[in-house]
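Letters spell out the chain; the tokens describe the backbone. To illustrate:

===
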Amino acid sequence: MGSLRSFRDRVPLPTGWEWGELGIQVLLLPLIFVPRRVALWGCRVLAAILMRRGSSYRRQMEALIPRPILAGLARGNPGAALRLSETRMLHQRLLVLGGALFPRWRRRVSVRGIEHVRAGLDAGRGVILWVHPCLGSSVSVKQALFEAGLPLAHLTRPAHGFSRFPFGMRVANPFLRRAENRFLAERVVIDAARTVGPLRRLQALLRENRVVSITVTNTASRLAKFPFLGGIIVLPGGPVELAASTGAVLLPVFTVGSARVPVVEIGAPLPVTGADDEAVRLCHLASLEWLQERVDRHPLDWIGWRAYLFQPAAAGHEQP
């Protein structure tokens, strides 16, 4: 009994929600070993099951996905739009799972705007890539910069990969991160209990004229709200303040074409004129204008709603 308790302490059991997510991973696992067309067919079948009429998962996704995105897809058919969105998400999860199982495998990626990174490095104060959450971005951005000869130092949180619960952070997250780890120069981990050390490490990297990446997230101490897609989007102020304090160039990043060959698009420098409220707000507005253009053209590639950056105007939502 003592040894069993010790094992449970070392390897916590999954929560009910994690068991459901693990079940999806198990169903996806055989699709790693079949041709791409068959794998996509399997993802469509699984998406149809998950998004069947009346399912709790479908209701959750309906409440999260911005209505303009649903209205603009599949000829305005919400059910078909939900199935299409979920198929794309499942395919991406399949690719991450394959990359975790076979870390030497890589998919083809391309990058646009790498000249902005090189120009920022020529300025001599480092570059911050501010990465919008997109299908494929967690691996594709890191791979694209690695293949360009500029491996990233990436700021991350313990919950990244699978879940924020103990089983996810101790078991599943480290495993799934294998798909991206080999493309990184360094992973800097930050959480509520450790903020000063990781931020000092980022400052030191920027002083060395390195490239660091930070994902747009709602897990920050300072968040600002803006109208977006008929609802509200939240943006953290930390990356803007970090760029202002170090003189680093701040570049927005969006990943498109996740269904085939992902294209990592790096935008021109965002206006960073200071760390006061007004300067941060103006930088946020410029970032949102850039993001809006890309979401309008590639609505299925942006997954900020899954990352709980977006809330419909009438209601908020809690993470599972």
About this structure: The first strand starts at residue 110 and ends at 112. The chain has two domains: 2-101, 110-312.
